[in-house]
Design a protein that fits this description.
The structure is a homodimer.
Chain A lengths: L1 E10 L6 E7 L4 E6 L2 H11 L9 H11 L3 E11 L2 E9 L5 E6 L1 H11 L3 E3 L1 H6 L3 E2 L9 H16 L3
Parallel strand pairs in A: 4-7
Antiparallel strand pairs in A: 1-2, 1-7, 2-3, 3-8, 4-5, 5-6
Helix pairs in contact in A: 1-3, 2-3
């Protein structure tokens, strides 16, 4: 497993859909995950430090976990099938047992950023999922793949520069 | 406190906004609570018995509570201020202690319908909030209020008849 961070919450400029870019600059990769508008908005608000006047669902989940003496250990994006990502949230109970709860990546990441828990992706995800090389030297991709990746890189980093 | 049930998830025909109608036919009242599109969609899906392919936030909260040996005792809509409702979710921990967690009514009701927990409104809410008399004999409302209520009743029950 490789630890990743949220590089960006942005919009796919081709489809207009919101997406999270997860990445690890040392390991030289990034993974785009398309998510819902609502999940993207709540993630963005949290990353910007906005405090909602009333708890929204992810704040509520974090409050529930804390009230039941649980602690979010980590979040793992662990499956990629037919373009859909799956994830698990690992929560440490008061008795020390760690429970694994299936969740969508968008929900998992929203909880990770609110609790400070680390986010991991499995090697299988890195092999199977749509990847972007963050640095382009010695790229193993075909010219067609490189053109696609360049397009992806362009719209991801357009907003960053 | 008075126990209520979800009479309807519908749309306000004047504003187009989604709303929940909570009510108690024995006590002869109903309360409309305006909520978000996302929350209304997930509530409606649950009431229709739809099972999502992956857990959505409310399914996730219920799974988290169960994994941490909690049990939802009840949900209470307990405050109404400047047109906004507030609620609390009461969760029984494994050690028997009952914890109270602040939540929005839309989130609370979504969790109640998924866990089978009862929903209550306080007397204060019944006194302060926008109410609809389910039966109209001996109505304490002014003619103007009655006309407003008739409009509300009409669009609520239009879909039911």
């Amino acid at each position: 497993m490789v630890e990743v961070s949220v590089i960006s919450v942005t919009h796919d400029k081709f489809t207009g859909l919101p997406m999270i870019i997860l990445g690890n600059t040392d390991e030289n990769f990034a993974i785009p995950i398309w998510i819902g508008d609502y999940e993207a908005e709540l993630l963005e608000n949290c990353l910007l430090g906005a405090v909602p006047p009333r708890p929204f669902p992810y704040d509520l989940i974090c409050n529930v976990i804390a009230s039941l003496d649980g602690e979010v250990e980590k979040v793992v994006i662990n499956q990629f099938d037919k373009g859909i990502y799956f994830a698990s949230i690992f929560i440490k109970r008061k008795d020390g047992e760690i429970v694994k709860i299936d969740a969508r990546p968008s929900d998992s990441i929203n909880i990770a950023v609110r609790t400070g828990a680390p986010i991991f992706v499995t090697k299988e995800i890195i092999e199977k999922a749509c990847l972007i090389k963050l640095k382009e030297e010695n790229s193993p991709y075909s010219p067609q793949q490189k053109r696609e990746l360049e397009k992806l890189l362009k719209y991801i980093f357009d907003e960053e520069e």
